[in-house]
Design goal:
Number of helices: 15
Helix content: 55-70%
Mean pLDDT: 87
Number of strands: 0
Order of helices and strands: HHHHHHHHHHHHHHH
Number of domains: 1
Radius of gyration: 19 Å
Largest sheet: none
CATH topology: Hypothetical protein af1432
CATH superfamily: Hypothetical protein af1432
Strand content: under 5%
Low-confidence stretches: 283-288
CATH class: Mainly Alpha
């Protein structure tokens, strides 16, 4: 059976992820990168340049004059927002595949799940805890990247895992099933990939532990917010495997109950936030 590192090595050999997205993500995690270096890298991806300039000139930022410089655009939106923008851009096509009716696992559903969890995570971070939410957005948008790697390299086994996971008498976690059938799991694979990308430690740990419900994590933290958002997304039928929604750990269930009024208000605002995210991140907008 392959190890998590074996899968990462094979995935990297396939060069599935765009070089520009990987390089920008790595550069944001270092303190030595200069603005000129960012500009030189971003300039290599015309689609990313278009999206960056459209974003900074959108009503979201409300600037009084047009920005036409990559360097100025990066200054206005900030490094973390830039990192998240390129992460979304780099991952979108990786998550896409031809939709197969009746498939228990599809990349399209996984993309919807990941983007919903990312938007919810940032909303929770900002509206419940008063934090910027950029790191939790990044952790959430890539928390299941390990499933994409497994799908590309061990597709039949992954579908067996999903089928077993859906079984009504099956109480085992999806990661335990992956360990048994595939030889590793998407949380381990995702952690290794995030480590290679030099992402913040709290993002790496959130990816590693997002299915760990036996350990109590601080509230708020990237991992606890990610687990809350994933639970809500699954309850709204935006889960990875339709029909399965793992319960929250007791301490997070208690937090949710104590703040139920605030979370109900947050969920009412979700459609508007998802529409705004679509405007900012959806490449289909550029074709109109």
């Amino acid at each position: 059976m392959p190890s998590a590192q074996n899968l990462i090595d094979k995935f990297n050999d396939m060069k599935t992820l765009p070089h520009v997205a990987i390089r920008v993500t790595q550069m944001v995690g270092t303190e030595s990168a200069t603005m000129q270096e960012f500009e030189e890298i971003i300039r290599l991806d015309p689609v990313l340049v278009t999206r960056l300039l459209r974003l900074v000139n959108s009503p979201y930022f409300g600037l009084s004059s047009q920005v036409n410089s990559i360097a100025k655009a990066v200054v206005y939106i900030g490094m973390k927002h830039l990192r998240n923008l390129v992460a979304v851009e780099g991952l979108r096509n990786v998550f896409r595949d031809k939709e197969e009716k009746g498939e228990i696992f599809s990349r399209k559903n996984l993309w919807i799940h990941s983007s919903t969890v990312a938007i919810l995570s940032q909303m929770i971070s900002r509206r419940i805890f008063g934090e910027d939410g950029e790191d939790v957005f990044l952790a959430s948008i890539i928390h299941d990247i390990g499933l994409i790697i497994e799908d590309q390299l061990t597709g039949a086994q992954l579908r067996q895992v999903c089928s077993d996971y859906l079984a009504k008498d099956q109480e085992e976690s999806i990661t335990a099933l992956e360990d048994s059938v595939i030889g590793t799991n998407h949380a381990k694979v995702g952690r290794l990939l995030a480590t290679e990308w030099h992402l913040p430690e709290q993002v790496i740990e959130a990816i590693r532990f997002h299915h760990n419900h036996d350990k109590k994590f601080p509230i708020p933290s990237v991992i606890s917010i990610l687990q809350l958002a994933e639970f809500m997304a699954c309850k709204m039928h935006y889960g990875v495997v339709a029909g399965r929604c793992d319960p929250l750990p007791d301490y997070l269930a208690g937090h949710l109950k104590s703040k139920m009024t605030d979370y109900k208000v947050l969920l009412k605002a979700l459609p508007a936030e998802m529409a705004k995210a679509k405007e900012l991140y959806d490449s289909e907008q550029e074709k109109e």
